[in-house]
Amino acid sequence: MTALRHSLMAFGLLGVMGLTACGGGGSGGDNPEEVQSVSVTGVAVKGPLAQASVAVYRLDVNASDLKGALIAEGQTADTSFIDSLSITPDLAGQVLLVEFSSSTSTTDINTGVTPLIRRFKTVIDADTVLSGGSVYASPLTSLAVSLAQLQADTASPYAGNGDGIISAAEFDSALDIAVQQVLSTLGFGWKTSADLLNTPPLVTSEAASDDELQQVLLCRQAIESVTVVANDIATQLLAGNATAEQVFDVLALDLTNGIIDGRSSSGAIELFSSVSSDDLQAVVEEDVSSKLIPGTNVTVGNVEALLVSETATTLVTQSTTPLSDGTVSSEPEAANAEADIDGDGVADSEDAFPQDATETTDSDSDGVGDNSDAFPHDSTETIDSDSDGLGDNSDPYPNSVDGDADGIDDPLDNCPTLANADQADDDQNGTGDACEPSSGGSWDNFNWDEANWQ
């Protein structure tokens, strides 16, 4: 999976921990080396979570919760970073599901209270962790993972075969597409090409350049924005009859039809049954820049200040000056209720080529978009190599305008395969005499047709 293969390296607060030891005394070498373990580093953010539980599982794409065997458990420290959690090298080649969950003692370090959304998950290659990469989970990674599971076995824009079983390859492909759909709807200006699963959602020691800090900012801005939207749907549109977490938990289901409209690909979503699609979409697409991040006095449009201030708790010493002086800045864009992963202005649900920004329509359903189809209304033809108006499939000389070299271009030639400059057609049937032996051609081994014998 593309998004998982390009992880940033660990940010230095917790590193690789090689535990090799030989027990006993004597000359040594008689006791086997203990298996090396590698620290799992990372953080969960909707505001960074302190004292949250962390569990690592083998990914099981056909389990209802994606959880295979439990590998390790740990927690996040007061700094919000994972503490005392490790995996062993025998997991190389495996894909892991990492879940962060809140308890009564878990706090968002910016608010001091339990976060509005209390459970986050992400998927990461074990090889990434073993090589020093970090785990980053957030509402957006949770949404992408859930959407990938729901859509992995479905067709366009996904690549499933619809057999009711999710293969590793189907999930792998689906996660890439799900990330793009999440970012095209709830990215709030973060590009669909962004590395959602591996971008730190807070300042780390590895986010040193302005470009890296910009990605951190865009990631965090989207996280805080989607939380504001979920909270507004719960408190305003649903009048407090649902929590922000309950709203967030059905967003992936809502996106299965490519549109946040209160419906999934299989029908209406019960939680949104009391509201109209228009009202729901109006809240989703509202301008969040001036809204306060719940529990803080910081607006979504000033996430930079939040990223700077929380370093006092995370203890990250990386310079935040570019965020403070405006060198690195961003204003959130409005969300989009309709997914458009190729950014061509046509929603995925209406786009015949949702992953190709150059094509949107296939009028003749031949698999070739109208923009590149020389015959967009003829399913038997797509190419005209010699630009003579005849499709290559039916053109006897697809690479020559006048294949028989009789001075008559093929589209106008009543016998394009035999030279007949006079274009004689005695029976006026549209086919030149040269191509109708019974109308003047000579009988020989090449044109003998018993049906014409009289």
TrEMBL record:
SUPFAM superfamilies, per this entry? TSP type-3 repeat
Read off the InterPro entries from this record: Thrombospondin_3-like_rpt, TSP_type-3_rpt
Keywords (A to Z) from UniProt: Calcium, Signal
Q: Which Gene3D superfamilies match?
A: TSP type-3 repeat
Protein name per UniProt: Thrombospondin type 3 repeat-containing protein
Feature: compositional bias, Acidic residues: 340-367, 403-412
Q: Where is the secretion signal located?
A: 1-21
Query: Does the entry feature the keyword Signal, yes or no?
Result: yes
Q: Where is this region: Disordered?
A: 340-454
| Signal is among the record's keywords | yes
- Annotated organism of origin: Oceanobacter antarcticus
